[in-house]
Structure formats: C-alpha cells, structure tokens
C-alpha cells in the first residue's frame, strides 16, 4: 500500500496470506529463539518449512550447528584456541607455533571467517607465499590443528579445508662439509683464540661432554656427583622472547641422563666451584623466570646465567680470529649462516665415541638421543684421515694389490 498508494493506483483486494518473505523461527539447544528469512525467489514458505523440519530434527538429535558460529574470524578463533594451547608442550614448541602464526598465517588469513576458508586458496598460499619445506610443513600442521579444534568445538565448521594441504617445497640439504664439526686442529686454533674464561666452558667442558648449551647452562651443583664424577641432566635453560627461563625437562625424554666426566671436564667443574661457590640447594622452578643463579655451576664471566649470546659472541670472534669461520648459504631460510657453530661439539663427541668403538646404544644414552639411528646418521662424521686413506688406496698406495 505504501509503494502503490490506492489514491494513485486504485483500490486492490487485500490478501489474507503473506506473499512476501517468510521467517522460520525455532529454538536452539539452549532454548534461545533464533530465526532465518526466506525470500520468494529462494523458495518462500516451502523452503522455510523444510528448513524448520530439518533444524528441529537436528536439535532433537543433537546434531544442530549454529551457522553464526562458523562466521567467527580466524584471528578471533585463534585467541580462543591459543588460550588453551599455550598451556601445552614445552616452551620452545609454543614459541615456534606462535612464530608461525604471527609470520605466516595471521597476516594472510586472520581476517577471514572460518566458513570462508577453502582448500584451493589455502594451497595456493602455502605453495607461493610460505618459503621452504620446514616452514610449509609447520604452517600446515598448525593450521590443521586450529581448524580441527573448530570442528570439535560444536562443529563451527563441518570440514577441515587444511587437512589435505600438500607441502610443495623440496627439502634442501646442506653439503656434508657444511655439517661436519671442525677438526681437532681447527678446534685447537679456536680454543687458543677464546678468552681464558670461555676456554674453561668450551674447551674443557663442552668439548669433553657434548652437552647442549642449554644443558650445561642449567647445570646446578646438586646435579653433580663428586664421588663418581658424574653430571645428572635434569633441567635446562631456554630463551623465551629474549629472557632466560628454567625448563623442567631437557629437550627430549632421553635428555634425562647421566654423563660421565673426563679429567678435563672435572677440572672445569672444580674451577667453577672455586669461582662461584654455588649453593647445593634444590629450588623449585616456579614460574621459570626465577633462575636461582646462586645454584648454577657454570655461569657467565660476571656471574650471570649463561645464554646463547654469552656463548655465541666470543665463539664467533674466536673462529674468525683463528681463520676457521666461513659463511654457509642455507637454502631453506635463504640466508647465510656462520660455520662452525658452538653446537658442533655434540657432533665431535659422537664421532670420537664412534671411532673408539663405543656401542651405539651407549652413545645414544650419553648424548640424550631418543633414536639410535640419529646418532649414526646425524652426529657421526667421517674420521679426519678418511680422505687421505681413500686417496692412498685409489692412488696405488697401501691397501690395493694388483691381481692378474
């Protein structure tokens, strides 16, 4: 009547039944009234009645899913997901997940609704905008977990569009020479260039034990067995956004172990005892940021807890001064890295154990590896004279005889 006033278009007969849009009203499982509108072109009354029949059946059989729940933005859903996820796993794992979300997923998909995420768009993004095999793999795994949680949470979405994503980047490997630790001759040059205090930490202790930096940084006096000259690895120090944090467990379950100390390593222990007089108390970890430095055995030169920067700076300066350092291109990150690394002591110790005939099971136990095969294929390298022995053999030297 308003659109076609009678005075202009003439009187018309009124209809008893609605001939416009229809609204289907129903109550969700919580008893809240909801509605949905259907235009004539979308089916009108017939479509509304069919919707009501299906919806009421879903409510009775507990299969109902509120359509509005799937319209939440991915960034908003991440906040709900992360509120629980940040309590799981180790600190380093949580930081890695947050880094993947911040760097790759949120800038591209944070503003999208869950219902709008589609497989092909996600696959194109993963292929063209996430560089490197490892980054693609981790981004895919995290996205699957986030959307899987949405399905579990009352089926915000019915299908996980990320579950069939494929990692298209090729895993690029480094040349074996870029993975090998320095030779003993190179280590001698590096150690000679180190400040005296760091010689105790790296030359006398790390070079003799193969412990990870976070493990000997977190070593406390109560973990040292004076009678048997053993070090019990029970906790580590890790970086959390630039701050050192105590972590109850080592990197892996196998990280809980006992490491025998050589005479040189024990000399380093005695030096640190005399230097810092650490307390033999065993404090609780608490929130992780209270390091209780007074208990730490191996510390920085000014008495603070060791961190990566404490070690990396003097180590890098020593490798450069020794003429050993070189830049190595990392095809995965597309950046240059410096070789050798302070972590390479583990490779050196493993190779020494292997060359001495120590069974792999025993080497695995001392190094804190969960898989014995990793000890052989990752940490064990060819001996220093292997290439010369091969050269002599192929060149007619020792080891080959002519047979006619």
From TrEMBL:
Pfam families: Phage_integrase. It comes from the Bacteria. The keyword Cell cycle does not apply. This is Site-specific integrase. InterPro entries: DNA_brk_join_enz, Integrase-like_cat_sf, Integrase_catalytic, Integrase_recombinase_N. Keywords: DNA recombination, DNA-binding. Residues 174-392 form the Tyr recombinase domain. GO terms for biological process: DNA integration; DNA recombination. GO terms for molecular function: DNA binding. The lineage of its organism: Bacteria, Bacillati, Actinomycetota, Actinomycetes, Kitasatosporales.
């Amino acid at each position: 009547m308003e659109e076609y006033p009678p005075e202009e278009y003439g009187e018309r007969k009124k209809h008893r039944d609605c001939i416009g849009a229809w609204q289907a009203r129903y109550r969700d499982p919580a008893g809240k009234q909801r509605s949905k509108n259907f235009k004539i072109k979308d089916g009108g009354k017939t479509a509304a009645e069919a919707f009501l029949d299906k919806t009421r059946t879903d409510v009775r059989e507990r299969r109902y899913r509120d359509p509005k729940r799937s319209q939440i933005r991915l960034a908003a859903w991440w906040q709900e997901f992360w509120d629980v996820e940040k309590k799981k796993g180790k600190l380093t794992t949580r930081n890695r997940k947050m880094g993947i979300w911040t760097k790759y997923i949120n800038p591209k998909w944070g503003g999208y609704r869950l219902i709008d995420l589609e497989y092909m768009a996600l696959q194109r993004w993963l292929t063209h905008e996430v560089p490197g095999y490892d980054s693609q793999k981790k981004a895919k795994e995290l996205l699957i977990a986030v959307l899987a949680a949405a399905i579990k949470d009352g089926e915000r979405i019915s299908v996980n569009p990320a579950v069939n994503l494929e990692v298209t980047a090729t895993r690029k490997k480094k040349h074996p020479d870029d993975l090998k630790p320095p030779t003993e001759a190179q280590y001698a040059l590096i150690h000679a260039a180190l400040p005296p205090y760091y010689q105790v930490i790296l030359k006398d202790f790390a070079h003799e034990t193969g412990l990870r930096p976070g493990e000997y940084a977190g070593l406390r006096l109560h973990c040292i067995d004076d009678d048997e000259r053993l070090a019990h690895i029970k906790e580590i120090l890790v970086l959390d956004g630039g701050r050192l944090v105590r972590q109850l467990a080592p990197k892996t379950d196998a990280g809980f172990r006992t490491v025998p100390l050589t005479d040189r390593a024990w000399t380093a222990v005695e030096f640190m005892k005399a230097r810092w007089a650490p307390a033999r108390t065993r404090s609780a970890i608490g929130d992780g940021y209270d390091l209780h430095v007074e208990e730490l055995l191996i510390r920085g030169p000014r008495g603070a807890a060791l961190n990566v920067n404490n070690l990396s700076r003097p180590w890098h300066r020593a490798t450069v001064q020794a003429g050993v350092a070189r830049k190595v291109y990392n095809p995965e990150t597309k950046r240059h890295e410096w070789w050798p690394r302070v972590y390479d002591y583990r490779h050196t110790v493993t190779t020494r154990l292997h060359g001495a005939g120590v069974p792999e099971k025993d080497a695995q136990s001392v190094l804190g590896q969960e898989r014995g095969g990793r000890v052989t294929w990752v940490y064990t390298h060819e001996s220093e004279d292997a290439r010369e022995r091969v050269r002599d053999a192929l060149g007619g030297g020792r080891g080959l005889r002519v047979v006619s």
